[in-house]
Write a structure and sequence with these properties.
The structure holds two protein chains of two kinds. The longest helix of chain A has 16 residues. Chain A has ten helices and ten strands. The radius of gyration of chain A is 18 Å and the shape is globular. Chain A has a six-stranded mixed β-sheet with strand order 6-7-8-3-9-10, sandwiched between helices. In chain A, strands 2-1-4-5 form a four-stranded antiparallel β-sheet, covered by helices on one side. In chain A, a hairpin with a 2-residue loop joins strand 4 and strand 5. Chain B starts with a helix and ends in a 14-residue tail after the last helix. The chains are: A alpha/beta, B mainly alpha. Chains A and B meet through helix 3, helix 4 and helix 6 of A and helix 5 and helix 6 of B.
Amino acid sequence: MIMTESKPKKNEAAVAATDQILVAQGIKKSFGPKQVLKGVDLAVNKAEVLVILGPNGCGKSTFLRCLNLLEQYQEGRVLLKGQVVSEGRPENHVPTRAEQQQAQYLRRHVGMVFQRFNLFPHWSVIENVMSGPRYVLNKPLEECRAIAEETLKHVGLWEKHPCDPLTLSGGQQQRVAIARSLAMSPDVMLFDEATSALDPVLTKEVLRVIRDLAAEGMTMLLVTHDMDFARDIADRVIFMEGGYIAAQGTPEYIFDERPVPGIQRFLEKG
Amino acid sequence: MQPQVLQRFLTATGNTLLLTLLSMPLAVCLGLALALMRSSRHRWLSWPASVYIEVVRGTPLLVQLYLVYFSLAQLGVHWGTDLLTFDAFYVGVACLAGNYAAYEAEIHRAGLQAIDKGQREAALSIGMSERQSFFRVVLPQAFRIVIPPVINDLIAMLKDSCLVSVIGVQELLTVAQSVGKSRAAVAEMLVVAAIFYLALSLPCYYLGKYIENRLKARGMPELHLDNVHGH
């Protein structure tokens, strides 16, 4: 897909802020004998848009899931706003209550959008969006409704608020999923191949929402296979290969200079 | 049919309904508890649940009724206590509920497994606890998709409730036999009992179909329970 629009313009305050908001240090993750992440270090600055690229199986989605603790990594640690929120544990480790609470704290601040939307089908669109503020933040019902209204308007779907989410198109479902994450006012948003399950037309409407968020200064990490979008939206591109970060830099540096041979191969295949 | 005979049949129908309507909710709740125990990673929870489910599914309901009603009472006599002698109706409810709980447990387990793991992950990703993600997101969805098989079991239980006639509970079959014998018209009274059973089970059947179709229309996953049902 070719994006013709120019890179989203961020508000000045957001761009000026460069403090590290999410930091991963030495993340190593194995599935049984197979080591998928072999020591990944990454620091995400406030209002920065990072795009993670790499061939299938290089560990990009796993890394994103480790950041949100949906996968337990074995070594390393994750810091949120300078505070250690999780550390490596053995693969079959059963989290203690304190660790679970820490994970909840992390997830309240780090939203995640999945490839397959994962909307809750037993709730309407607005109930999906209200679920976080209502059950996690324990806000009053009226306030939850107001938050849901605001975020649904933000993604352009307020008119669908009473609908059954399964009746919406894929693009609309993904926008509701984004709204559900936004309703928690996260510090960082993670997008795990958020448009891979969508056709080009539906992809466009989701990308538009992501571009708007970038323009507003939302800190984001995106795993995507859409090179044009990556080049267009990213402040920094991370290229992963074989469980490592093989290269990182501006989109121009990664796409034009192709600093490691893997990028060349990856871009030619893509 | 004479009014007093009809009256007896109606009372018996009430008892059959009461037996079923008390036993089934108990079976569903106990079945859920067993399903959760069996899915637990703690062996001290999963092992007793597995043993219970296999033993109950591997023995006939009729034998279970005899064991609980007669054998326990006999044991009580042996130990010099009447604490193990129970009212036939409650034994009927307990046995029906206990027996069906083993089958409901497998239905619940299949239902919980049918929910995409992305649902749990999505709930966790917005900051819900494991408990919240289970009770607010996974369980309500699983419960919806197990409704059709549970209604099938409700119909099966309605019919199986006639087994409690062997311990003397005044339900439809007991009354049909009793009235039939006193009037030398056992066959006719059994037909009447069959009509009453049919009148009770048909609405449940259509309710189950209606719910199943609605769930299908909403795209909810279907359960495949070929190896679960044994009634």
